[in-house]
Write a structure and sequence with these properties.
alpha+beta
């Protein structure tokens, strides 16, 4: 696309906040945000950076998305960068996107919180606080009865589900409400997300006042809290500015750049004490080409990396009270967002804060290019990479309530969205349990039933016996992934060929210990959950599974009340037919 083409496209772009995408066919080359889309897009007719000039030359189109606010533009940009991974953006690897709310394109639209909305859906957001969004969506469902079930559960029903009984849905599936009336409720939900707060706040306030008059103070307090969340929903937190004196949590960032790779080290201080540190790698194309202030609005080098990291990293994470940076990030939209969220941003020149920034810089420089703990581990055991590691452990009590854990670490940090767990056959044999757990993971990977990328390394909690059991399972399934074990007693690292006793302060040993300990913690936690599961006599009734049991107890309150219920009453519970109702009566 030449300069004239950019100028011509810019003339048709509105002067509103939003996001723009430079496209090459169906490929997104670059995503940017702007307070004034027309002005920003027009600036690409004369790009000041060689990287951006190459991008413009390749592009054959520009897509525009207008947003209501500058903050929404900022967050939508982060989502699109995460989804499309455009090669000309500075982007954080393996991070999360921001939640949105969608109303599906259906005769009875479904409301859903999602990070990957359907193209045909009506979409609102993105939003920074998932907990706040969940509170609002539940309040909307209780007020307007919009369904949350999947289309599969919606289709072919002959009676309403439990959501109808709980007041969360008006059951358009069985026409308890006609589609025209349901559509009016969906329109009310849309009006709320478009900014009409009162359409939800007003009925909540009336319900709160009624609860208070009835002296139901606990419910009134819950409704008050929900009302506060609803009323703050469209305000983007602009009034929640904290003073410096209230700072409890402070994040300190350091950046190191090598070629097209960048490392950001983050230190966390709480109540004046360092409590956590981690490092993150970023793709930073063209990071050294030009100073801040380029035509794309984000600059290059350290400022661009800082601006991109702050927005992308704090998706699904609580912002700290303050950020300490090695230099200004130079992005006005990011600055406005942080200010609205009450985050103090400082570039300290001297004193303790300056020393913290220097420490973060040292941490970043140690890992630039991704060669710190992960690279040292790969070199030490002779594999190509150890960027993505999965850890495994089993837990049981004398052979009962046997379970297995599967945790994931990426670039040395826990990736909890990729944790998995599995119930195992009860047996008091750690080797067979480990063989079963690894067989399950390997078969799912080989058959394409696991949506996670293959790891670079598997870490087994145990000794040579557990490792051999795991390797047998891998061989049986035909999954070729390196596996090692870490024994607790002497912290020996066991590979198929040899054993290692590394120094206790070795960074790559610390990485393995974190993976092993997390796999152990996750396994024990799941074992305790399985061991303590509530059992009732309903579990022994043929035809009554966990979901039906929950619905029966939710409807009647206790097993005793289920026992006294008539067959007709039992049949009114979703999932309970005549035969099951008769079986319940005969067994209880």
């Amino acid at each position: 696309m030449n300069a004239d083409g950019v100028r011509e496209r810019a003339r048709s772009v509105p002067r509103e906040p939003g996001v723009y995408q430079f496209q090459e066919g169906d490929t997104t080359l670059y995503v940017g945000k702007a307070v004034d889309l027309r002005s920003r897009v027009g600036s690409y007719a004369d790009p000041r950076s060689a990287r951006i000039r190459r991008m413009v030359d390749r592009a054959d189109g520009i897509e525009i998305a207008v947003t209501d606010t500058e903050t929404q533009a900022l967050l939508l940009e982060a989502n699109l960068i995460k989804r499309h991974q455009p090669r000309y953006n500075v982007r954080l690897k393996d991070d999360k996107s921001y939640p949105m709310v969608q109303l599906t394109n259906h005769e009875a639209p479904r409301i859903e919180i999602t990070r990957d909305p359907a193209e045909s859906a009506t979409v609102f957001g993105p939003y920074t606080n998932k907990g706040q969004v969940e509170t609002v969506v539940k309040a909307l469902r209780e007020t307007y009865g919009v369904r949350g079930c999947s289309d599969h559960k919606y289709a072919g029903r002959d009676r309403p589900c439990l959501d109808y009984e709980m007041g969360l849905c008006t059951a358009p599936c069985t026409r308890e409400i006609d589609l025209e009336s349901y559509g009016e409720d969906v329109t009310a939900v849309e009006r709320f997300f478009e900014g009409e707060t009162g359409i939800l706040a007003d009925p909540l306030r009336r319900e709160m006042e009624a609860a208070a008059e009835e002296r139901n103070f606990e419910r009134a307090a819950n409704l008050r809290d929900r009302l506060e969340t609803v009323e703050a929903f469209h305000g983007e937190g602009g009034e929640a500015v904290q003073s410096v004196g209230d700072e409890r949590a402070v994040d300190v960032l350091g950046v190191a750049i090598e070629g097209a790779d960048a490392t950001v080290a983050r230190l966390r201080a709480e109540d004046g004490k360092l409590v956590d540190r981690d490092r993150h790698t970023m793709d930073a194309p063209g990071a050294g080409e030009a100073p801040a202030g380029s035509a794309d609005g984000a600059g290059e080098g350290v400022p661009a990396v800082l601006a991109a990291f702050v927005v992308q990293y704090y998706a699904e994470r609580d912002l700290p009270d303050a950020l300490l940076l090695p230099e200004r990030h130079g992005d006005e939209e990011v600055a406005a967002w942080l200010d609205a969220e009450g985050v103090a941003v400082r570039v300290p020149g001297a004193g303790r804060e300056a020393k913290l920034v220097e420490l973060a810089l040292k941490n970043a420089r140690r890992n630039v290019g991704g060669r710190d703990e992960c690279g040292m581990l790969a070199d030490a055991i002779g594999i190509d990479a150890a960027r993505r590691i999965e850890g495994f452990d089993v837990s049981h009590a004398q052979g009962t309530s046997a379970v297995g854990s599967n945790v994931t670490f990426v670039e040395g940090s826990a990736e909890k969205a990729d944790y998995r767990r599995k119930k195992l056959t009860d047996q008091n044999d750690d080797y067979d349990n480990m063989r079963a757990l690894l067989g399950w993971r390997a078969s799912r990977a080989v058959e394409g039933r696991d949506d996670r990328p293959d790891p670079d390394l598997l870490v087994i909690d145990g000794g040579a016996g557990q490792l051999q059991a795991a390797r047998d399972a891998l061989a049986d399934a035909g999954w070729d992934v390196p596996a090692i074990a870490l024994a607790k007693a002497e912290e020996r690292v066991i590979t198929p060929d040899r054993e290692f006793s590394w120094p206790s302060d070795a960074p790559h040993l610390h990485l393995l210990q974190r993976v092993r300990d997390e796999a152990h913690r996750f396994a024990v936690q799941y074992h305790q959950t399985v061991r303590d599961e509530v059992k009732t006599v309903l579990d022994d009734v043929p035809g009554v599974g966990p979901e039906t049991r929950t619905q029966l107890l939710g409807r009647f309150g206790s097993v005793e009340n289920v026992r006294e219920a008539s067959i007709e009453d039992l049949r009114s519970v979703p999932g309970v037919g005549e035969k099951t109702a008769e079986t319940i009566k005969s067994r209880l």
